[in-house]
Backbone:
């Protein structure tokens, strides 16, 4: 049985990208079995996933939330994050990431 942790989100880590069509199956396996569980263990939790169907922007937007900037700082300085992000880049194009103050709803 999964356990859930309730947090008070203060920051969002937002990832934008396009999934490479020929890598779609590998991408989904990687995200569900490796990427998301690994960063959740570090205190950064998946919040929302968006598919952007209109405009000249990356189609995929994933939001993660966390309670503190220290958690994000430790994440970004970790070797594990570097490995996770580098592997994600194998499956996607037009990759961008940014951190914003948490606000409910769609943020760019």
Residues:
């Amino acid at each position: 049985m999964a356990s859930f942790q309730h947090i008070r989100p203060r920051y969002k880590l937002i990832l934008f990208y396009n999934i490479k069509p020929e890598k779609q199956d590998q991408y989904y396996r990687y995200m569900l079995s490796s990427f998301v569980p690994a960063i959740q263990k570090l205190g950064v939790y998946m919040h929302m996933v968006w598919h952007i169907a209109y405009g000249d922007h990356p189609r995929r937007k994933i939001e993660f939330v966390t309670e503190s900037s220290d958690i994000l700082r430790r994440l970004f300085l970790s070797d594990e994050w570097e490995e996770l992000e580098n592997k994600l880049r194998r499956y996607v194009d037009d990759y961008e990431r940014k951190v914003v103050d948490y606000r409910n709803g769609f943020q760019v």
Observations:
- The radius of gyration is 14 Å.
